[in-house]
Design goal:
Shape: globular
Bound molecules: iron/sulfur cluster
CATH superfamily of the largest domain: Aldolase class I
Largest sheet: 8 strands, parallel
CATH architecture of the largest domain: Alpha-Beta Barrel
Number of domains: 2
Helix content: 25-40%
Strand content: 5-15%
Number of strands: 12
Structural class: alpha/beta
CATH class of the largest domain: Alpha Beta
Low-confidence stretches: 1-52
Radius of gyration: 22 Å
């Protein structure tokens, strides 16, 4: 609805139900507020004035909250929302997150164990053509030892991430998975890129629980321009294989890639839904000097938060992290992510001498601290937001429901 609409209500405004709280009342006002939020004094009894697309967005959000799957144009409409409409979407996403996932935030530990990469992703500082970067590999036993330190500090999920580095053969990765699984009840997530089906199969048999493989963009032309070494078809094939093998599968995409449109982002969100992902990382593009996109502008944090919120409305039980990229561009937006649908955060575990070199995009690392200190600091931060730190492994609800 593009015109100002005036709706006369035969009942008193207080008789209307809030679409978010259900059991509370909805105060109809110029600023349309739920009474669990701050009630404004400027509400009009009997009249509602909805401006712009609010009525359409209001109805759409209500329908999605109740299970309706929007089409591309409807997702685009939500992504274009601003002001009051946007605040409404953010509030709805927060409520859906609490309703389906509780008030908890899961802390994952990530070991970035190698910055060697055979791939040539146009946006990534680790790309094979960046000759300026000093490269490192952690030895398998060093990786297992780092995981042990993290488990002792309270971590229940260890994410093993690297560039596409074939030095780590199927057997080496198997050794690492088994070594970590022997340390206790801990989930192992792999994030090592495109590999053969047989590698994926073996690692699942060895005990790996989850696999992260972002699709980055579902726009085929854009994908293949940014990934000259690969095809979108192969990426999707890998994702389907991982799901078929029984991994809790994560994907995700970037916001603000040069040439990307709002429609592309809407399609990215709907692709995550079609794939029924257990986890989804959505972060802004950040240019790196060692890449072809060094002069391109960074992606928008606001659009990242919108995409996160709209994803939460649709993907109710999927784990959604407040990505490091979002936190890198602006720490406050990283915090805001937890109030628009995010329920996961990842902290680096590898020694600082390696962290400095794992530079997909430039970022500050801060003062060096131990794994235990960093975890304790994050727990305090989560609690300061009024959230709880999740105690378990944090398997995806979607995955548990499939068992
Ligand atoms: S995004 Fe991943 S696969 Fe692509 S260059 Fe970077 S590390 Fe390699």
């Amino acid at each position: 609805m593009s015109l100002v609409a005036r709706i006369f209500l035969s009942k008193r405004a207080e008789d209307q139900r809030c679409i978010l709280c259900e059991d509370k009342y909805f105060i109809l006002s110029h600023n349309v507020k739920c009474i669990t939020s701050t009630v404004t004094s400027a509400f009009c009894r009997g009249f509602v004035v909805f401006k712009g697309d609010f009525m359409e967005i209001y109805q759409l959000v209500r329908n999605i909250s109740q299970g309706y799957l929007p089409n591309v144009e409807e997702v685009e409409l939500l992504l274009r929302a601003e002001g009051q409409e946007l605040s409404y979407i953010f509030e709805a996403a927060d409520k859906i997150n609490t309703q389906y996932n509780g008030n908890q935030v899961h802390i994952r530990g990530i070991i970035e164990f190698s910055n060697y990469c055979r791939a040539r992703c146009a946006y990534c500082g680790l790309n094979a053509e960046n000759k300026e970067l000093a490269r490192y590999r952690m030895e398998p036993d060093e990786i297992i030892q780092t995981a042990k330190e993290a488990i002792d500090a309270g971590y229940k999920t260890i994410v093993l991430q690297s560039g596409e580095d074939l030095w780590y053969t199927k057997e080496k990765i198997s050794y690492i998975i088994k070594g970590i699984k022997a340390l206790g009840d801990v989930a192992v997530t792999l994030s090592v890129g495109e590999r053969d089906y047989e590698d994926y199969r073996q690692w699942k048999e060895d005990g790996a629980d989850r696999f992260l493989l972002k699709h980055e963009t579902i726009n085929r032309k854009l994908y293949e321009k940014l990934h000259p070494h690969s095809t979108l078809r192969n990426r999707i094939l890998c994702l389907k294989q991982l799901k078929q093998l029984g991994y809790q599968t994560g994907s995700g995409f970037m916001i603000g890639l040069p040439g990307q449109t709002t429609k592309d982002i809407a399609k990215d969100i709907l692709f995550l839904n079609r794939l029924k992902v257990d986890m989804a990382g959505i972060g802004p593009f950040i240019p790196h000097k060692g890449t072809a996109l060094r002069d391109a502008p960074a992606g928008s944090n606001e659009m990242t938060l919108k995409a996160l919120a709209v994803s939460r409305l649709i993907l109710k039980t999927t784990h959604l992290p407040a990505t490091t990229a979002l936190r890198t561009l602006n720490g406050k937006d990283g915090q805001k992510a937890f109030h628009v649908g995010a329920n996961v955060i990842m902290l680096k575990l590898e020694p600082y001498k390696y962290r400095r070199l794992y530079e997909i995009y430039p970022k500050a690392l801060g003062v060096e601290k131990s794994i235990r200190e960093e975890r304790a600091e994050m727990e305090r931060f989560i609690e300061s937001m009024g959230k709880e730190v999740a105690k378990g492994r944090g398997d995806s609800i979607r995955f548990i429901e499939r068992l």
